[in-house]
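Support reply, case 0932

Customer input (verbatim):
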Amino acid sequence: MTSPPKTNHCFSLRALTELTATLAVTIALTSASQLSAQAQAADQPKKEEGAKPSATTSTNTINDWKSKEEQAESSFIAGNYTEAEKQWQEAIALAEKDNSLNLAETLNQMTHLYIKKQRYEEARASLMKALEIREKELGKSSQKVAETKGNLALVEHKAGHDQEAEKLYKQVIETKRQAKSATSLAITLTNLANLYGEMKRLDEAKVLYQEALELDKKAYGINHKESAQDLFNIAAMYYQHNYNKEAIDYFKQAEAVYTKLDDAPGRVKVYHYLGLCYAEENQHAEAIDAYKKALQIHTKLKGDKHPDTYVHQLNLARSLEHTGNLEEAEKRYKDAVGAATENHHSAKIKLVECTLEYAHFLKRHNRSIETEQMLKEILPTYETLSASDRRQLYELPRAYADLLKELKQDSAADAMARKHLHVFGPTKSHQTKQ
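Our regenerated output:
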């Protein structure tokens, strides 16, 4: 729906972390049943000094640790972050008793939670501790060390420390090249490409994305979700930097693979961004077709009037409006607002977004009185949002204040501006993008 300027992270681009070679668009944690084997067999640890607990005690502790890891992973994937954090902390307490490599694994896994919650200092501290353990036990050339460094690079990347992130990504890439770990290398290449895209170093980003694509094609073949995601990443890079024609070409290639794979979520995101590209090229007939496909598939996946489908309704309404089909456009806006109203308690922010979009439509067509009434009715809901959500939707009080000025209600406009001044951001045109 509403969005900040184009950014790679809006697209769920490839791997979010380095945790496993198969971790890609969605976060799929390494299962706890695999963790001990990875930590103790994939790399041979140095022999630890000091007395060891009995075999029975050690086995029981490891089994308890695995159980907590499984619980934490399930909770995290389900979105129960408070419970996941508690369970990971319990796993840490168990691992601290007698297995430093299991401790490093949990510290590494917990990075997902910290990144999700933007708790970068805690993520950094956790990873530094994991890195220290792994370097000591496995050696600096270990793939597990590279894995942790890759996560640390991602944290620096997310925190805006671009130079440090680039340095770490390059170190990881060198280690993985030497180890000939192709699929794992593709993940790090993609993450560094994401960084370069954000830094507007497009030529370098494209080279890395293309190398990741070639590695995945060799490993899996072109008709595989990893190859499709690589194509999508290249398209997203072009879209982000307003090379819409090039983006359309790669989105279509990704669409062809997702269609062969019968991958509905992949097709939804491709049609969504194809629509945006076509709309920016003023090819609104093509945009409408893409938005309708995205809406149809997403509705089948999530159910009728699901909050995740509102974005397609709004984008479709905008393109219908551009073609002069105002009656159908307004119907789409109303449908989105109506559905959001029904889901008010579980999707307040989406209700505000949908209402704001409809208000903009009314204002563009000189229906100022209706616009004022709509903004007046939604303002109390807006004021119940979190501070971050209010800042994201600063356009609402700003648009309301501007409208009041136009209606010669200067004192009310000034009061609105003063009350919400802290959330006003830089002036930008309002766009229906995600």
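We compared this against your earlier run and they match. Two observations from our side: Confidence is low (pLDDT under 50) at residues 1-54, 426-434. Residues 55-77 form the longest helix (23 residues). Please reopen the case if you see a mismatch on your end.
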